[in-house]
């Protein structure tokens, strides 16, 4: 019996230890990055450079996905709504779905894949080729220069990318509902803006900052702790995508619950 | 002063003073269960060119990474220019590092930057003690000193291994440090390029009279560049002496290294 208990404890420890280690590492990185970001000297130039790389380079993918998302959402829901005689609710329904949930979530998941893996791979390869050490001996704080700037850039750019994706998704929704040539542009968007309220937009916008922070933090943490050469870099990029996607989904759930408790739903 | 008959190299630096620039006492460093340095003692005097040899994984790189503050020792004391590395603040450590150059084994050039930007990086990043003068001129002079002026606008991926090493050396020396730490500068290079790098190191040492610690397995480099050889084994400075003394040792654990 005691042998069984020991084996169970060992199994639990083996399973849970990496999870708690990873969580502690993320918390420590998060705290340090906030400290490095708020204390001078500030790395404005590098932050803007990262904003450009993260933001501008993601525009085509995020935009195209948003457009298709809106289009498909409307094409899928239109027949059901029409069947129940609620076809006129299509603009309101699609806009609320897009702004509140689908737009931010899908954009954050795309960013987790594209930006998170990119950050992790870049920092990871710098780590294993001693470029981070070289930076440190050159009198540069690599944590401030590489980590804090990328997390800040993610926090600034993910919300902007979400807004961009939302707008294109609404355009996609209009195109979808207009495929049969029955809905006028101004009519569609009047109905959209009538349906949307501050309580729909605000929690969703706040959520995107947290998504950005999580994506940047996970990407940087995994990259900075890369080990074992190029294989390790690949593994960190992979882990970064998995952990940041999971984080986005968990954050989404938590923020939605909190929004509900505060009366924003 | 010995000179090779096979290829010409500048004289070894001779301006060694009794001023101790690096003093390592009872240094200990472990990684998990593995003890790498255990009660390691070393004194490096100003102007000295010390070669550190030993088997792979014995702790040579760990030693120089402790000296520059990239790794924190578990115990003992490590003083550079009289300052204990482990007690320095971030700012004081950065200030101290202005006087120490580090040539990485992998060259560690920044992939995403051109050669110009790689060399400008240490100059532009000096917030504590901003570099005065024309940065472009300094970069060009530095490239000229390693014979690679034409590579200024190339990317590191466009260079050969030997050229990358040279640029790595140029970047480490651009702030004119008093101490230079070389981590296996000739590893992975063909014999001709290795000799070029050895000549370059000797030439630069001769010009600027820096204090050097050179980590290497290359007996040729040890012979040409050293005033003093330290053989690391079992986490300690197992054997010390001039090249001629060390090469004549009858110690069965060291002798095969020079055969």
Written description of the protein model:
The complex is a heterodimer of chains A (265) and B (259). Chain A contains 9 helices and no strands. Chain A has one domain (43-261). Chain A has helices at residues 2-38, 44-56, 59-83, 90-128, 131-137, 142-177, 185-195, 198-224, 229-261. In chain A, 86% of the residues lie in helices and 0% in strands. Chain B is an alpha/beta fold and 259 residues long. Helices cover 32% and strands 24% of the residues of chain B. A 6-stranded mixed β-sheet of chain B has the order 6-7-8-3-9-10. In chain B, strands 2-1-4-5 form a 4-stranded antiparallel β-sheet, covered by helices on one side. In chain B, a hairpin with a 2-residue loop joins strand 1 and strand 2. Chain B starts with 19 loop residues before the first strand and ends with a helix. Residues 1-14 of chain B have low confidence and may be disordered.
- The gross shape of chain A turns out to be globular
Low-confidence stretches of chain B: 1-14
Most residues in contact, chain pair and counts: A-B, 16 and 24 residues
Strand composition percent of chain A: under 5%
What kind of assembly state do the chains in view correspond to?
heterodimer
Query: How many helical elements of chain B?
Result: 9
What summary fits the major beta sheet of chain B? 6 strands, mixed
Keywords:
heterodimer; A: 265 residues; mainly alpha; 9 helices; B: 259 residues; alpha/beta; four-stranded antiparallel sheet; 32% helix; disordered N terminus
Summarize the structure.
Chain A is an all-alpha fold. Helix content of chain A is 86%, strand content 0%. The termini of chain A are far apart.
List the helices and strands and how they pair.
The complex is a heterodimer of chains A (265) and B (259).
Chain A: H1 2-38, H2 44-56, H3 59-83, H4 90-128, H5 131-137, H6 142-177, H7 185-195, H8 198-224, H9 229-261
Chain B: E1 20-31, E2 34-45, E3 49-53, H1 60-67, E4 75-80, E5 83-84, H2 90-97, E6 100-103, H3 115-124, H4 135-145, H5 161-173, E7 179-183, H6 191-208, E8 211-215, H7 219-225, E9 228-233, E10 236-241, H8 243-247, H9 255-258
Parallel strand pairs in B: 3-8, 3-9, 6-7, 7-8
Antiparallel strand pairs in B: 1-2, 1-4, 4-5, 9-10
Helix pairs in contact in B: 3-4, 5-6, 6-7
């Amino acid at each position: 019996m005691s042998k069984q208990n020991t084996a169970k404890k060992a199994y639990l420890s083996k399973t849970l230890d990496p999870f708690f280690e990873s969580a502690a590492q993320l918390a420590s990185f998060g705290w340090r990055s906030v400290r490095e970001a708020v204390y001078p000297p500030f790395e404005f130039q590098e932050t803007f450079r990262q904003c450009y790389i993260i933001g501008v380079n993601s525009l085509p993918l995020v935009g195209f996905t948003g457009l298709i998302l809106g289009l498909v959402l409307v094409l899928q829901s239109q027949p059901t709504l029409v069947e129940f005689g609620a076809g006129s609710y299509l603009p309101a329904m699609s806009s609320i779905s897009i702004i509140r949930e689908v737009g931010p979530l899908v954009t954050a998941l795309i960013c987790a894949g594209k930006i998170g893996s990119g950050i992790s791979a870049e920092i990871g390869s710098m780590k294993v080729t001693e470029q981070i050490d070289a930076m440190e001996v050159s009198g540069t704080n690599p944590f401030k220069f590489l980590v804090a700037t990328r997390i800040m850039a993610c926090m600034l750019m993910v919300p902007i990318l979400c807004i961009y994706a939302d707008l294109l998704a609404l355009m996609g929704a209009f195109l979808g509902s207009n495929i049969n040539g029955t809905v006028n542009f101004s009519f569609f968007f009047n109905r959209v803006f009538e349906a949307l309220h501050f309580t729909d937009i605000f929690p969703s916008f706040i959520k995107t900052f947290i998504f950005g922070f999580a994506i940047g933090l996970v990407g940087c943490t995994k990259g900075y702790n890369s080990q074992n050469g190029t294989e390790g870099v690949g593994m960190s990029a992979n882990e970064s995508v998995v952990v940041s996607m999971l984080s986005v989904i968990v954050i989404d759930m938590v923020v939605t619950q909190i929004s509900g408790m505060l009366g924003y739903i | 002063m010995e000179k090779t008959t096979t290829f010409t190299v500048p004289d070894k630096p001779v301006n060694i003073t009794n001023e101790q620039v690096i003093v390592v006492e009872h240094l200990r460093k472990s990684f998990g269960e593995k003890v790498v340095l255990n009660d390691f003692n070393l004194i490096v005097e100003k102007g000295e060119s010390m070669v550190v040899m030993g088997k792979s994984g014995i702790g040579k790189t760990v030693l120089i990474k402790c000296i520059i503050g990239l790794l924190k020792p578990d115990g003992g004391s490590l003083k550079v220019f009289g300052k204990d590395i482990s007690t320095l603040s971030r700012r004081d450590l950065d200030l101290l590092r202005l006087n120490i150059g580090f040539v990485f084994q992998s060259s560690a050039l920044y992939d995403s930057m051109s050669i110009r930007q790689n060399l400008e990086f240490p100059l532009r990043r000096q917030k504590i003690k901003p570099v005065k003068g024309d940065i472009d001129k300094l970069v060009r002079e530095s490239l000229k000193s390693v014979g690679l002026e034409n590579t200024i606008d190339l990317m590191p991926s466009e260079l050969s291994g030997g050229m990358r090493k040279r640029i790595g050396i140029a970047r480490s020396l651009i702030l004119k440090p008093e101490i230079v730490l070389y981590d296996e500068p000739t590893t992975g290079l063909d014999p001709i390029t290795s000799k070029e790098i050895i000549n370059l190191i000797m030439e630069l040492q001769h010009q600027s009279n820096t204090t050097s610690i050179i980590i290497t397995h290359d007996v040729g480099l040890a012979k040409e560049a050293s005033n003093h050889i330290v053989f690391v084994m079992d986490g300690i400075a197992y054997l010390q002496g001039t090249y001629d003394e060390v090469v004549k040792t009858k110690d069965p654990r060291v002798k095969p290294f020079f055969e």
